[in-house]
Amino acid sequence: MSTAEHGWWRGLAGLTLALLVIAGCGQEAPQRVVVIYTAVDQPVAEPILKEFERTTGIRLEIRYDAEQTKTAGLAHRLEAEKDNPRADVWWSNEVFHTIALANKGILAPYESPAAANIPAKYKDKRHRWAATALRARVIGVHTQLPEGVRITGLRDLENPALKGKIAMAMPAAGTTSGHVAAMYALWGPQEFERYMAALRDNQMKLLGGNAVVAEHVGRGVLLAGLTDNDDVSATLKNGGKIVQVLPDQGDGGIGTLAIPCSVGLVAGRANDDAKRLVDYLLSPQVEAKMLEAKFAGYSVFAAEGELAVKTMAVDYADVSAAMPVAVETALRILQGR
Hints:
Distance between the termini: 92 Å
Number of helices: 11
Radius of gyration: 25 Å
Shape: globular
Order of helices and strands: HEHEHEHEEEHHEHEHEEHHH
CATH superfamily of the largest domain: Periplasmic binding protein-like II
Structural class: alpha/beta
């Protein structure tokens, strides 16, 4: 090869390298992506998560849960994916499945600075989850009850005047599973079984979700049903004839179950962007958005006033531990098995 030819080839190689460098510099860096599984209702969660994307530039891949399998569906998915996790962050509409996931090693410790001022009862001592935005279990009551019928607590649903006109969601999913487990933990097996039998004898109907319970009460198909505060609010917004009763709030009452929305990092997937999302979801600003949307009814920071509620004296960990036997017992009795 002549000196001229050699120089030509060197020049061509240099030009090619320069073009490659220029092309590389023109390429955008891969966009950061965080995968989140959430059981928070999509109309509530979506604008909150889009705001995170807008302000951080971090793209989210979001998987929502279905109403019929609320919370339990995605919790089971996380369990199935334990050895090969797909999600980075878990954002639940309750805390009991979150505690179970943490105890199975599916959530990783992370001491979020956003959790520093959250009361101790609403966060894990080992920093595997924290929670805000309390939802309350309520009794949705139709505006027109039979004469002389008054509903202020759980045991009022045993009234024969309500026979065949009361309902709850299937206790195998969602906040209903936590509610029956809280009754079991608070009352003990004997009184819990007596109460379930009394509801069965009063022809308690099991429906496909808390929203369905509230809708049936709002239409007058039913007179009362166990549901969540946000489902009553949604039914009222749609013109339903329903009022919300916080059960057992008076002197000597056991209170109701207040259920916070919980957040955790998935083990094996922890990264700075995922931690940033956790910090955001635990912020007072996000809790305020959930209160404004009437998804949450009460703040974890409120000790008194209209954002406070008398709650059941139960430990969330005890309720989570009682859930399998409580749910199985409730289904066996209510379904007459």
